[in-house]
Design brief:
The structure is a homodimer. Chain A is α/β, with parallel strands linked by helices. Chain A has two domains: about 1-45 and about 160-250 and about 345-405, FAD/NAD(P)-binding domain (3-Layer(bba) Sandwich), CATH 3.50.50; about 95-150 and about 250-340, D-Amino Acid Oxidase, Chain A, domain 2 (2-Layer Sandwich), CATH 3.30.9. The first copy, chain A, has ten helices and 20 strands. In chain A, the strands form three sheets. In chain A, strands 1, 2, 8, 9, 10, 11, 12, 13, 19 and 20 form a ten-stranded mixed sheet that branches. The radius of gyration of chain A is 22 Å and the shape is elongated. Chain A starts with a strand and ends with a helix. At the A-B interface, β14, α8 and β18 of A face β14, α8 and β18 of B. Chains A, B: This is glycine oxidase. Chains A, B: It catalyses: glycine + O2 + H2O = glyoxylate + H2O2 + NH4(+). Chains A, B: Its EC number is 1.4.3.19. Chains A, B: Pathway: Cofactor biosynthesis; thiamine diphosphate biosynthesis. Chains A, B: Keywords: Oxidoreductase, Thiamine biosynthesis.
């Protein structure tokens, strides 16, 4: 496995970490990515919706600017990936139908439509008949819906595979290892060491470990020169208490489950969403007939066990919207941990510790925000201006608000 | 892989085939078992209920004699397996609670209880309060139930593993290969050949291929001497049309799905069954906390894809009986094909073709009937009398009834 010195170490090889690594390597930087199980986190469980409009929430205006910007970057991002790797990542510009479950839900969709319009987001209200004409597999009798023509999808697992290949092709070194601690010189972060003791020094470390970002930030730090080989140093002598508390990103794991079914590839034409008796559910049809159903949302710590009740509820609600789903093949249950953030906005940027950037807290929008996050972080490291206003994502906003409170 | 001559060839290494092979080897016979994927069929998907009483149906008196006999053989069978292998096969004498869903269902259970009593099977009607006291995780408000103290369970997967080890220890040769055709000498069956051309000659061939038994019986036959090595024989020259139609066992695949959840090992004390709005469901608690939920029943040919609607219905009905199941871990969906029989009775015994025995068509009772089937077939081959009346299981009954019709 070995150690080494490099320009950038990225901790985390999910879609966020690899996108950053790839963009940095494209700019001529030497990059190493460390992950004990690349792409096994939220990257694997995600459904890959790219949905600024239908994921819009009333409190979410600052987030909207980011999601719209990143959605606009997607066509170029995907085209570049295809050029670099020859991999089709299943980017489908299929649009999204949000079906209303009942009259109250339809009224809520009308309000959402008005809110979207006030922000310049195009969407269209549909009658019951228009909804069913757009997606004949929908249950009869739904009162109407909303058509979001610009909410698309990508196959997140294929995206991860392509990013891995593109990063490798651009010279990124991928190390399958768990980070065990930080390397510091004075107040500065100068690298990480793995659990097995390998040291990776770098001018910049980017913490992109998703739901595990806080736990990684809380690992112990080692200061001073490397321990000379062969010399046994008493445990703890060179270990400090770790990084300052204010750089620990306040991410929390938000457990999500998705199901994967498989039907004929022409079963659905669009992403279908709904809120069945208030409970949100979506169905994302891939080009190969795979149907991703999501997603549960639970605050259950780092427990990754799929909950039988969540499987049941997703199947129930998805079948109520699309009865034909009862007849298709059941392929998989997947459970992941979203990196939840206190204000539902990610943390992207520098910290109070020199040499340490973070890119985490993407919560429900990690796949969508990957192109923007990668461009932003690469810009911060190289000094290029990617034209992204990161004020709302400043990782230091939480420590600041504590000071001013 | 090689070929060979042996006393007995068993086609099929599920629980039925391996039990037969083991019993034959114990009696000094040289046995070879062939299967392309040992134990991957109904053996793997089964829940392992040993339930003569609660599986009793009004038309099922002849079956009852067999299931009671085999249930009585289980303690000795399991003890011998444990002696031979050191493997605990999860035989739990836990009894079975059949919960009534509503008043009509309770009335049906009262009738079943009376029918059981008339046949000398012990069971006990329970009040709502007694039912809940016996199994506190049951939903509140169920009107009563039936206690079948002698309906137990076994871990069918551990049973299969133990049988494999015991058979191997007794000298059974297991060959991982798919049978491609029959070897005949005159009217007699004298062995099988594999798809890759290996020949296995035997004094007796036992067809125990579960749901695939008819398809195997319909394979082409090869008569006359072996093809000399190196000599290319024109295709078809030595191939006859196969075995006579009347020895093809009329088994059909009946698709079943089971789920495996996982909870605390003390969640349930007994097998729990019910018929929620007429739809049967059962939950079998293993000693390790695994909870097997079954089982769907569909006539869908040889399709092995798990159906999303069946997963949904099993979770729904199991949760209606045992609400706590919504909170436990979802581990697995398994799909298997039961070997259905026209009269729901197995086919065990000789055929009109010398050298060919069949042991198939066990439908919902393959695990339960394994000890009886193995003793019966070993008795038929060695001439020992196992004390089993196989009249109702005679494989020739279907061709006879066609003649008399």
């Amino acid at each position: 496995m070995g150690s080494g010195a490099t320009d950038v170490v990225v901790v985390g090889a999910g879609v966020i970490g690899l996108s950053i690594a790839w963009r940095c390597a494209q700019r001529g930087l030497a990059v190493t990515v460390l992950d004990p199980a690349p792409g096994s986190g939220a990257t694997w469980t995600a459904a890959g919706m790219l949905a600024p409009a239908t994921e819009l929430h009333y409190e979410g205006r600052p987030l909207l600017a980011l999601t719209l910007d990143s959605a606009a970057r997607y066509p170029g991002f995907v085209a570049e990936l295809a050029d670099a790797t020859g991999v089709d990542v299943g980017y489908r510009r299929c649009g999204t139908l949000q079906a209303a479950w009942d009259a109250a839900d339809l009224a809520a969709l009308r309000d959402l439509h008005a809110f979207q319009s006030s922000l310049g987001i195009e969407s269209e209200l549909l009658t019951s008949r228009q909804l069913r004409a757009a997606e004949p597999a929908l249950a009869a009798g739904l009162p109407g819906g909303l058509w979001a023509a610009d909410d698309h999808q990508i196959d997140n697992r294929m995206l991860h595979g392509a990013l891995r290949r593109a990063a490798g092709g651009a010279g990124v070194r991928e190390v399958t290892a768990r980070v065990g601690g930080w390397l510091r010189r004075g107040q500065q972060v100068v690298g990480v060491r793995t659990e097995s003791g390998d040291r990776f020094e770098a001018g910049t470390v980017v913490l992109a470990a998703g739901a595990w970002s806080a736990a990684v930030a809380e690992l112990p730090a080692q200061t001073g020169p490397s321990t000379p080989a062969g010399l046994q140093v008493p445990a703890g002598l060179q270990a400090s208490a770790g990084l300052p508390a204010e750089v620990v990103p306040p991410v929390r794991p938000v457990k999500g489950q998705t199901l994967r079914l498989r039907g004929p590839s022409d079963l659905l034409n669009h992403v279908v969403r709904g809120a069945v008796r208030g409970s949100p559910v979506y169905v994302v049809p891939r080009g190969d007939g795979s149907l991703v159903i999501g997603a549960s949302s639970e605050e259950a710590g780092f427990d990754l066990g799929p909950r039988a009740g969540a499987v049941y509820e997703l199947l129930r609600d998805a079948q109520l919207l699309l009865p034909v789903l009862g007849e298709v093949r059941f392929d998989e249950v997947s459970t992941g941990l979203r990196p939840g953030s206190p204000d539902n906005l990610p943390m992207i940027g520098g910290t109070v510790v020199d040499g340490l950037l973070v890119a985490t807290g993407h919560y429900r929008n990690g796949i969508l925000l990957a192109p923007l996050t990668a461009d932003a972080v690469a810009g911060l490291i190289t000094g290029e201006d990617p034209g992204i206003d990161l004020t709302a994502c400043d990782p230091r906003r939480f420590s600041r608000s504590e000071v001013s409170a």
